[in-house]
Amino acid sequence: IPVFYYIFLRRQNSDYNSHVVKHPRLESRSHPFTDSPLIRAPPPRHPGQIVAGSSRADYSCYYSSSEPHPHHPQVSAVPENSNSLQNYAKDKLSGQMLELFESCQQQPSDLARKEMCRTRLQQDIQRVYAVARLYLTGSSMNGLGCRSSDADLCLVLTGHKKHDAIYVLSVLQRLFKSLSYIERTQLIRAKVPILRFREKGSDLEFDLNVNNTVGIRNTFLLRSYAYADVRIRPMILVVKKWAQHNQINDASKGTLSSYTLVLMVLHYLQTLKEPVLPSLQRDYPECFNPLMDIDAVPDGPKHIPPYISRNQSSLGELLLGFLKYYATYFSWDKQVISVREARTFPKPYYQEWRKKYICVEEPFERTNAARAVHEKNKFEAIKAQFAESCRILQQRKDLNSILPVRAIINKESATR
């Protein structure tokens, strides 16, 4: 089992090392919601305090046969935040968002199940590729998953030989058909080819790629943002549920991927006059070096000190502001979203950017994460949904007016 993977799951209950405080280098940005800079400071510690965002479960039991590397200290990558989530959910709309989040967020038992399957798969794959390492990535590991979230897997094959992804996945497809606990294998020849399959007898679906290690880097970058402020995870979950309900959250059908939606939320929160988030890559480049060895990636964020935003907007205010920003202020035809720099920049003249309807910079590879939106009618539908939902929510201040809260909760409750 990879050393860093063991350490990551051991950290779920660890305390964050908050002795180092770095002065912010955040500039004010320019859309009309609140003002004053972000400040970082270690929040007060209280006996029995739960670290913001940390899981109450200790997953080290899955790795009891492994020992942590002596050069990898047991330090959590999760910053603290002394503000309780309830402080941001005192109005009706915010309370509905909190209820939806608490009902739908991935549970420790969900992650445990995915991890058990990952462990079995790695053992079986190593019969064919002895040097293979298999990693859970994406929303399962970055704190942004739901109970119904599928699991993303990255198979890392090292060595001098260059591995063709389609060939490797074809080999694995044949292997998986002989495994008693896997069914419905399907090879999908996308830009990043994947092998899709299900755990037998359940609805737990996996997408496995080969050597797409940027997904591992993104997992820990987004995890650092997810736990940076207690409002981030509820905000993102509600936005994803809203987009799914309104059929604008499916890259395979020419709309927005969940990953793109997450970057759009983070960008909005970074660019408020009174930011909720900084740019972690800009302020702490050494922690998210794109050339960092994969085994060192989970240790990068441990050096980031806690920070507190002066922005005290409620969950509902932030959701309405998010819809309003993209419905009114953001220039789709002229701007590229950059979470890496916490700003927008003008569309470059390269074809990848110039001819796309939506431009969202991938934080490590700097490609367009929104390239799936390539049809004008799909783009217009996305814009129209932001405008319509903004209008309705501003008028009614009721989450049920833009998505069926109880139906979603009931569906998630029946999951797994």
From TrEMBL:
<keyword id="KW-0963">Cytoplasm</keyword>
<dbReference type="InterPro" id="IPR054708">
    <property type="entry name" value="MTPAP-like_central"/>
</dbReference>
<comment type="similarity">
    <text>Belongs to the DNA polymerase type-B-like family. GLD2 subfamily.</text>
</comment>
<keyword id="KW-0460">Magnesium</keyword>
<dbReference type="GO" id="GO:1990817">
    <property type="term" value="F:poly(A) RNA polymerase activity"/>
</dbReference>
<keyword id="KW-0479">Metal-binding</keyword>
<dbReference type="Pfam" id="PF22600">
    <property type="entry name" value="MTPAP-like_central"/>
</dbReference>
<feature type="domain" description="Poly(A) RNA polymerase mitochondrial-like central palm">
    <location>
        <begin position="93"/>
        <end position="226"/>
    </location>
</feature>
<dbReference type="Pfam" id="PF03828">
    <property type="entry name" value="PAP_assoc"/>
</dbReference>
<keyword id="KW-0808">Transferase</keyword>
<dbReference type="InterPro" id="IPR043519">
    <property type="entry name" value="NT_sf"/>
</dbReference>
<feature type="domain" description="PAP-associated">
    <location>
        <begin position="314"/>
        <end position="368"/>
    </location>
</feature>
<dbReference type="GO" id="GO:0046872">
    <property type="term" value="F:metal ion binding"/>
</dbReference>
<feature type="region of interest" description="Disordered">
    <location>
        <begin position="31"/>
        <end position="50"/>
    </location>
</feature>
<dbReference type="InterPro" id="IPR002058">
    <property type="entry name" value="PAP_assoc"/>
</dbReference>
<dbReference type="GO" id="GO:0005737">
    <property type="term" value="C:cytoplasm"/>
</dbReference>
<protein>
    <recommendedName>
        <fullName>polynucleotide adenylyltransferase</fullName>
        <ecNumber>2.7.7.19</ecNumber>
    </recommendedName>
</protein>
<dbReference type="GO" id="GO:0031123">
    <property type="term" value="P:RNA 3'-end processing"/>
</dbReference>
